[in-house]
Each structure stands twice: as structure tokens, then as C-alpha cells.
Write a structure and sequence with these properties.
Elements lengths: L8 H17 L6 E4 L6 E4 L1 H10 L9 H13 L2
Antiparallel strand pairs: 1-2
Length: 80
């Protein structure tokens, strides 16, 4: 495999265009805030959580903060 600096100029330009195209099409996730539907407190939806949601194919952002989501899970699971 050749090192990048050994590539002919036209291939270097092609590589630069390809890399910038991939970066331009990559989703950008930024921290977002929202109000929890249960406790009405402000909550944060981190970029990592957004990436996870996108990877799983989830279409909607969270409606509950992490504490309320966990409480809901415990309540749901205790009824089993």
C-alpha cells in the first residue's frame, strides 16, 4: 500500500474530495435541551444519545429525562 504522499496529484485531489463529501453527508449531532414530559424539568439530549437513536432508527427525540425513563422502566418491570 502506498503512503498518501506517494500518490499522484490527481489521486490526492480525488481523495480530498471523497473525504470532504463523506464529512459533509455525515449527520452532525449537537447537545439539545428539552422539558421532561413527566417531571417538567429541563433535560439534555447528548450528541452520543442522538447518535444512538439514529443508529437504532428511532424517529422521535426522548420525551422524558433519564431519571423519569428509569422510573418508568422500574414501574413497568415490577408489574411482570
Amino acid at each position: 500500500m502506498r503512503a498518501v504522499h506517494d500518490l499522484p496529484g490527481h489521486l490526492l485531489a480525488l481523495r480530498a474530495v471523497s473525504a470532504s463529501t463523506v464529512e459533509a453527508n455525515a449527520p452532525r449531532f449537537v447537545v439539545k435541551s428539552f422539558m421532561c414530559a413527566d417531571c417538567k424539568q429541563p433535560a439534555v439530549w447528548t450528541a452520543d444519545e442522538q447518535e444512538f437513536y439514529a443508529h437504532k432508527g428511532f424517529q422521535n427525540p426522548p420525551r422524558r429525562c433519564s431519571s423519569c425513563r428509569e422510573a418508568r422502566r422500574r414501574q413497568r418491570d415490577s408489574g411482570r
